[in-house]
Amino acid sequence: MSASILEVKQLTINFGGLIAVNNLDMQVGYGEAVGLIGPNGAGKTSAFNLISGVYKPTHGQVIFNGEDITGLPPHVINRKGIGRTFQIVKPFGSMTVLENVMVGGFAHTSNRNKSKAIAMEVIERVGLQRKVNALAKSLTLADRKRLEVAKALATDPKLLLLDEVLAGLNPTEVEEAVDMIKDINKSGISILMIEHVLQATMAICNHIVVLDYGKKIAEGTPQEVTNNPEVIKAYLGDEYEAVIN
Amino acid sequence: MIFLVDFLSAVVNGISMGAIYGLIALGLTLIFGIMRIINFAHGALLMLSMMVGYWIWKFSGVNPYLMIIVVAPIMFCFGYFVQRVFIKPVLDAQKDVREPIAVLLLTAALAIVFENLALMVFGADYVMAKTTVTDATIALGGITVSAARFYALILALVIAYAFYLFLQHTELGRRLRACGQDRNTALLMGIDGPKTFAIAFGIGTALLTVAAIVLLPFYYVHPTVGNVFMTKAFIVVVLGGLGSVPGALLGGIIIGLIESIGAQYMTATLTTVVVYLVFLLILFVKPSGLFGSRLEW
Amino acid sequence: MDIVQKKKIGLIVIILAIALSIPLFVTKPYYIHVITMCLLWAYLASSWNLFCGFAGQLSLGHGIFTAVGAYVTIMLFNDFNISPWIGMFAGGAAAVLLSTLIGYPTFKLRGAYYALATVAIGSGVMVLIENTMTLGPFHVGGAEGLIVRLMGNAPAYLQFMSKVPYYYLALAMLVIVVVFSYWLKNSRLGFYLSALKEDEDAAAALGINVRNAKLVAAAYSAFFTAIGGVFYAMLIRYLEPMAIAGPMMSNEMVFLAVVGGSGTVFGPVVGGITLHAISEVIQFYFSDMAQGLHLFIYGLIVVFVIMFKPQGIIDILQKYYNRFLGISDRGEDESSVS
User: Fold this and answer.
1) How does pLDDT run across C231-254, given as a tens digit for each residue?
2) How many domains does chain B have?
3) What backbone phi and psi angles, to 5 degrees, belong to A61?
4) C306:B120 CB<8 A
5) For residue A1, what pLDDT band results from cuts at 50, 70 and 90?
6) The domain containing residue A103 runs over which residues?
7) Higher local confidence (pLDDT), A190 or C142
8) Average pLDDT across chain C, whole number
9) Which pLDDT value is given to residue C286?
10) Among B60, B103, B196, B213, which is most exposed with the fewest C-beta within 10 angstroms?
């Protein structure tokens, strides 16, 4: 058994000439929280889609819990123990919060009551208990993001991939969400998160990987990464662009 | 030699029928490209165009091909009206639904309404605009072809080309293309979505009218005549790529050729089955069609 | 047992009692026949709904399942004297097989493409039936259709002289499909279908094997639809390709389910009974006035329901139902009508 719950080796995907992820090597240790950051279009979400099976890599391997899961379909990868959220949240709009989470709860049981019990527990963990019977489409963005996490959690993952769950939240909501993610991590679930909100990422993650143009340009502790000249260049360049746009 | 003559006239017939399929499919593909709706009322609208054309011809007695000038604007307005009154409200209500199934069903229900409206107003008889064109033939080299079918081919090609020029070189055409390529961006750029949708539906219906009119001199009209053509048009658009204009025409011609050449060697049933099999094969192997599925022009 | 439970059970008992006693009050065979057809259409709409309504897939070719069920059963009966009671399971099995064969390639298609594929397959099967006179030892009958061999009053062969047994049979079938729908909707598969109806990628990310879920639900739907086809054949005693496999059969199921409320347990039942009853009434009163008038009105009703009540008639009934039970909003009661 390897030392990491997730090990990505030379992961590459080529979309007809555009190399979205280029030779990416990275690990997530057991119980660790790792941040994946980088400017827009750096290939973060593509990397998630490769790990979770939405895309099949052109080259490279994804090893989860010592097992090669490269190229398996998304539902199989989820059953192996990887839960994920989507950057553009995908609630099942006309189902209630409880029903949404129960869909995840059915991952390991076919019994309705058991699934409901799992769902209720998870809903409490993410702090949605007062919205249990609300329709998912009526939720605020912050609550939709919580719901997204709850659905994934209900499948009982060992590793949780969080795709920008903090984006678009106000400072109070970010703070609450950071606490929630920390709690999840403390309960023994390893986390790999994509984030733009750098400070929040650093509050959660002890290890950060930086992508730019599909390539890993730096990794290390939050301090190491923020002092890395390559990272500063990539980010400043990005901000500079943001100014002229 | 006789074999070759038969074969060649089958080819010409196939191309001409195929061009008509293509013209019908053009309207379907335009509407799909812009609104993401499969118009299940397309066949019924074809039938209505034929009916209106037939009765105007019957009472005025003018050359059936001239009907296009009269019937096309009428059907454009009708299509515009149908989109505005029936389809738009449902489309708006379904904005947050990924697959607007209700709109498909709405068009299917409208087809029933139109078919039975025609049945009530025009009756169930099989009628045809029999003129001198109907039985005339034209000699092309060694082979003779039906004049009506030959004119149909010429007109279909001319109209398809005119439509292409319209899309390329007019303001409205550019607006339609913009909507087809990226609806949301087009709307953000200040294109009046609902109006453009309604115009697209109107144009789709007007294109259909041309197909309807060229069919009049050699094809019987009755309230369910649209069904045959609609299924063909579905096959054609999938073959050519939903949303592709050249694909619609080429797809139409391919189907027309399979039918007419197939009829030389197989029973009509087997030919039809072959057409369906080709359709399913394309759908499963390359659902984007032979010529790409984006609104390409 | 609380008051809500008591009221629910009371309501079910009353509805069933009315349904069971209808033949006592309605004695004219024609009326019984019409009411039986209403139940059959409610049954067919519910069968369609099992997959298409719950999973949000627009199949416009379900007529192939009524056709396969009916043809297999009747051919076994006509040529091998196998009772339709047994043959219907062969017909159902054939439909399940066909559904799976079609499902494998088609379920990766989305939205409009799936609908188009079902239309094409439906038309293709129809052409095949119309042009097949014999199939091995079986007589198929081509476009002329197939007459069900008459046995007189033979309950063992699903043939009755009176219309009443057919009525009870249709009622039983409807009850079975409704109970099954209710079970399915509240099962794991039901949750999976609701989820993939909204977003297949999100569903797959939660461990749902989207294609398998669709295949299983489609198989249920095909089986129930096929049994409906068998019943239709035994009631009418004549199989006409256009009627059993044609677009009207396929589309009608969809219209009834959608007008009633697709994706709900009781919507297709309500839609099937009311819309078919209305269509029978307008046909009775208007078909003499002008050809096509009744279908014109029927089409308009469907158009207006889709335009103004897209959730279906069940949505209106749900309000009265909740008021009757004393429930204020839908959130509090999970096992509500829908």
Assistant:
1) 999 999 999 999 999 888 999 999
2) 1
3) -135, 150
4) no
5) very low
6) 87-156
7) A190
8) 90
9) 81
10) B60
Is residue B144 assigned to a domain?
Answer: yes
- Residue C198: list chain A partners with CB under 8 A: 90-95
Is C142 an interface residue toward B (CB < 8 Å)?
A: no
pTM, 2 dp: 0.89
With the CA atoms of B135, B140, B142 and B147 taken in that order, what torsion angle do they form, in degrees rounded to the nearest 10? -10
Picking from C284, C218, C229, the residue whose alpha carbon sits closest to that of residue C252 is C229
Give the containing element (helix H, strand E) for B247: helix B245-265
Residue numbers of the domain that contains B43: 2-285
Query: Quick one: A26 and A66 in the same domain?
Result: yes
Q: Can you list the alpha helix ranges (DSSP code H) found in chain A?
A: 44-51, 74-80, 97-105, 112-126, 141-154, 171-186, 198-204, 222-227, 229-244
Question: What are the CA-CA distances from residue B167 to residues B170, B172, B212, C273, C325 (Å)?
Answer: 6, 7, 22, 49, 59
Angle, vertex CA A12, rays to CA A10 and CA A14, nearest 5: 160
- Which pLDDT value is given to residue A117? 95
- Residue C152 reports pLDDT greater than 60: yes
- The burial class, CB within 10 Å (0-12 / 13-18 / 19+), for C320 is exposed
Asked if the structure places residue B200 within a domain, the reply is: yes
Measured between beta carbons, which residues in chain C are less than 8 angstroms from residue B229? none
Contacts across the A-C interface (CB distance below 8 Å) = 78
A173 with A231, same domain? yes
**Tally of CB atoms within 10 A around C5:** 11
A110 contacts in chain C (CB < 8 Å): 187-188
Is B280 part of any domain? yes
Kindly report the backbone phi and psi dihedral angles of residue A195, in degrees, each rounded to the nearest multiple of 5, phi listed first: -150, 150
Q: Which of residues 106-135 of A touch C (CB under 8 A)?
A: 106-107, 110, 112, 115, 133-134
CATH at B146: 1.10.3470
Domain presence at residue B290: no
**pLDDT score of A245:** 37
- Report how many helices (DSSP H) and strands (DSSP E) chain B contains, helices first: 13, 2
C-alpha to C-alpha distance for A115 and A211, rounded to whole angstroms:
38
> Whole-angstrom Cα distance, residue B65 to residue B22?
18
Proportion of chain A above pLDDT 90, given as a percent = 66
d(CA A130, CA A96): 12
What are the sequence ranges of the domains in chain C?
3-327
Confidence of residue B183 (pLDDT cuts 50, 70, 90): low
Q: What is the mean pLDDT of residues A107-131?
A: 93
The answer to whether residues A212 and A145 belong to one domain is no
CATH fold of C3-327: ABC transporter involved in vitamin B12 uptake, BtuC (1.10.3470)
Is A52 in the C-facing interface, judged by CB distances under 8 Å? Answer: yes
Residue A241 has pLDDT above 60, yes or no: no
Most confident of A194-198, B32-36, C95-99, C130-134: C95-99
* pLDDT at residue C335 greater than cutoff 60: no
Residues A145 and A183 in one domain: no
ipTM of model: 0.90
- Interchain proximity B120–C299, CB inside 8 Å: no
Place of tokens 């009757």: C324
Q: Which residue, among C206, C214, C327, C328, would best test binding to A if mutated, counting the most A CBs under 10 Å from its CB?
A: C206
What letter represents residue A7's amino acid?
E
Choice among B45-49, B268-272, C129-133, C238-242 with the minimum mean pLDDT: B268-272
Nearest residue, CB atoms, A103 vs list C195, C201, C210: C195
pLDDT, mean over chain A: 89
C247–chain B Cβ distance below 8 A for any pair? yes
Regarding predicted confidence, which is higher, C326 or B48? B48
